[in-house]
């Protein structure tokens, strides 16, 4: 085990030591770190922003790879075809959304405010939780469903 505590890398601030710890800042470093761990038959834990991870106090016995790659390139931008970006996996997701909004690139603005790195968004299938509105349940008695201002008992008084 290393002296690197994973609690320092998670939003929940829990997690013991890493067996091995690698901070990979480029795509090539990420690929190399995964290949090396695979060749050694070690378990791999990828960490992005650490906002959706709960790690045991015992830590992780294998190789922990922290994705620290940043930046993006704009491969195409026009008013008809839209924008095509290649984004590094470690790039902060919300910073990317902010950049898109500031440049009037529509499409991901509803995913603003979600913590973490861009590489995790497809893995986690992120969605705009804050925008989902509660639907009243069919089983709710009148005046007791979500969104009602005051809850009233269905039992006549
Ligand atoms: C306050 C708060 C609000 C949130 N709001 C929302 C919300 O509105 N909608 C929503 O969908 N989620 C929400 N989340 C959850 C979280 O933001 C997302 O799941 C986010 O995608 C996690 O990104 P991360 O980089 O922090 O991932 P991590 O926590 O570092 O990792 C999460 C998982 O993804 C894997 N992973 C991470 N990066 C990669 C990669 N590059 N390649 C392969 N696997 C990878 C990890 O191994 C791990 O299994 C919220 C979390 C918090 C703390």
Summed up, what is this model?
This protein is an alpha/beta fold and about 160 residues long. The chain has three helices and five strands; from the N terminus they run βαββββαα. It has helices spanning about 25-40, 95-100, 120-125; strands at about 20-25, 45, 60-65, 70-80, 80-85.
Description:
With 157 residues, the protein is α/β, with parallel strands linked by helices. The chain folds into two domains: 62 residues, Uridine Diphospho-n-acetylenolpyruvylglucosamine Reductase, domain 2; 54 residues, no CATH class. Helix content is 18%, strand content 20%. A three-stranded parallel sheet has the order 1-3-2, with helices on one face. A hairpin with a 3-residue loop joins β4 and β5. The longest helix has 13 residues. The radius of gyration is 22 Å and the shape is globular. The N and C termini lie far apart (65 Å). The C terminus is likely disordered. Flavin-adenine dinucleotide binds next to β2 and α3. The site of flavin-adenine dinucleotide has 26 residues, from β2 and α3.
